Amino acid sequence: xxxxxxxxxxxxxxxxxxxxxxxxxxxxxxxxxxxxxxxxxxxxxxxxxxxxxxxxxxxxxxxxxxxxxxxxxxxxxxxxxxxxxxxxxxxxxxxxxxxxxxxxxxxxxxxxxxxxxxxxxxxxxxxxxxxxxxxxxxxxxxxxxxxxxxxxxxxxxxxxxxxxxxxxxxxxxxxxxxxxxxxxxxxxxxxxxxxxxxxxxxxxxxxxxxxxxxxxxxxxxxxxxxxxxxxxxxxxxxxxxxxxxxxxxxxxxxxxxxxxxxxxxxxxxxxxxxxxxxxxxxxxxxxxxxxxxxxxxxxxxxxxxxxxxxxxxx
Length: 314
Description:
Blueprint: H1 13-24, E1 29-32, E2 37-42, H2 46-56, E3 65-67, H3 71-75, H4 82-91, E4 96-101, E5 118-122, H5 127-136, E6 140-141, H6 156-163, E7 169-170, E8 183-187, E9 193-197, H7 203-210, E10 238-239, E11 249-253, E12 261-262, H8 269-285, E13 290-293, H9 301-313
Helix pairs in contact: 1-5, 8-9
């Protein structure tokens, strides 16, 4: 580990300059994105990428997302067809990850792809990670900055509680606005596509550009992050679609269903997505041994919320 402390407050230019030096030296930096905090390291170094896997306790068959500054940089790493460029033009920078055929000469650690011939790429929108990419002048591998399988972090405090001194530096950029990980889309040969992980960008928005999705052809192979059956776990039994709760359950409400805390009293799914992981962190820290969660509509971003909740309850 490099002897670098937690950076508190606004991630200003001095902090980002220091973080870039940590990245170039092969260290790890927790950095905010518009979705969740990521644990970033230089994607071209086997040792740096291995440090991510060690810090998270992440299984080595689970690939990582590589974050870059723009489409031009992404095209040096993977092959883009018309469909991929259409999505990148429409949704980058933003919470969309594309899984594409990896260039043989990409110059990245093989571990970011977990042995697959594809690469997961994203151009994030958050100004802090964008500044870090620009200052480091490197593509950054950056899965969520938490222990593997546990609740994702949407604040610097969540990162510190989950990883502690397993991370070299934490850039505190405040709470994440989206609060749920990016939509992951695989582009198939011939321009077909399928959603590997639901997120803030709805399938209907993608279909409006590319036409209907096709069924996944992976046959159970893990192609992208967030596909493990059990994930985002708060460490307690979770009961979903609960209209009421028992005396030993910490209740997370939504809309008209009240609770000790609520995803959104107004029944707003965008607010619920932004608050999802913070509510799960609060429930995990509560003394009650079980968690009950009110129903959330399963459409739009609610589909992504329910995907995370089902995996948390698995």
